[in-house]
Predict the structure.
Amino acid sequence: MQSITTAVQNSAKKLLEENKVDVVIGFKKGTIPLRSTPVFIRDSNDADKLEWNYYCENNLANYLRNKDQKIGVVVKGCDSRSIVALMKENQLTRDNLYLIGVPCSGMIDRKKVNRIIGDKEILETNCNEDSLIIKTKDSEQTIKLNEVMHNSCLKCNHKNPVIYDEMVAEPVSENSNTDFSEIKEFEEKPAEERKNFFIEELSKCIRCYACRNSCPMCYCQECFVDSTNPEWIGKSAENVQDNLFFQAVRVFHLAGRCVDCGACERACPMDINLGLLTRKLYKDTTEMFNTEAGANLEDAPALSTYNMDDPQPFLLKE
Amino acid sequence: MEKEPKIVAFLCNWCSYAGADLAGVSRLQYPPNVRVIRVPCSGRINPLFIINALRNGADAVLTSGCHPGDCHYATGNLVARRKFALLKNLMDYIGVEDERVSFSWVSASEGTRFAEVINKVTERAKKVGPNNGLFNKESGCGGCNQ
């Protein structure tokens, strides 16, 4: 981790000194433990602020659209895939980007850590190869990294950036196939149970739209939920039906575009299991149309192309 | 008396709407439960339309366009087909009854088939009963019995 931090800092310093980019977007140490925060470095003297650790969970592709500067950006696997997906939609120009690729070994989920240590205040954290050491006021606890990784990171099969201008470390080994076990398990349940589960989950929703705002692919000028003419959807969070409507259409809009980075789920302040919805669409597009969003520069996004022999199991049985 | 279901049908202008027309001029009988909305192409169907129809109280929604390969705009229904496949899966996944959302391809010459499709969809809508389910805004918290 330390070596990656140094390499990122050196790379950013060099880019800024040589005026190759106007700004480098990366992560710096956050104000609370277990948190790194995105940072915009414009001066080469500030490059030392950059960090790389297990808390760099934000998807930095979010900050790249509608900028007329040349941007250097620190990318892990999911960031790079979002960038590819945005490039396919003509939202980004490759020439304006300099991608500092970082192999990612997964990010730590603060909520999981908090569940393990309870409501004690975390004073200091330390990470080594495979465990996280948490210091609180009167105790010290060692947790296996696998237990506190984000769900999306545990199932990730693109840990290394798919495109980059330079890699700051050796690539890490990838999971060989995508694991959709939790989705398949949920599909097996009776319809009534699935329905009740979603009703229950979405009754927690406060309609803050953090899921939408944290998503690099959600960039409509006017979102359908904000539209008042036509008013597609009620604006109150009290109507669970409307909350589910919002989520269903949100994930549907991401079909074939979502790179499964998990940013929506991380952003949710109410801890709603959004992965169960987003990953369902991700699974279906992958399995039905045999494409993975953002995995390469060649394939067209799943929903903007077609095959003559696409499956049509949805038709009315006659 | 049994409550008659309300069915919203999105029909493409070039095939299914003409198919409905043919059913009409051929004086074929089919249930009057269906309310037709004419759209330029099945590719024009935004999944929002379908969910919104359910939200505003439709008991079932039928979406119909030209057969794949016959689209007036060459590829409109082929692109739509991928959307429909995903939408149908998602609807099933979150627990919307299979009978609420139907899709079919009906060409301009298939007047008889159009009548059959409407018969079928109406039958299905009656079988599943009124829409108090997931998306109906009037049903309050219908899904969780509160």
Observations:
- Chain A touches chain B through 48 residues (CB under 8 Å).
- Chain A has eleven helices and nine strands.
- The first strand of chain A starts at residue 23 and ends at 29.
- The mean pLDDT of chain A is 91.
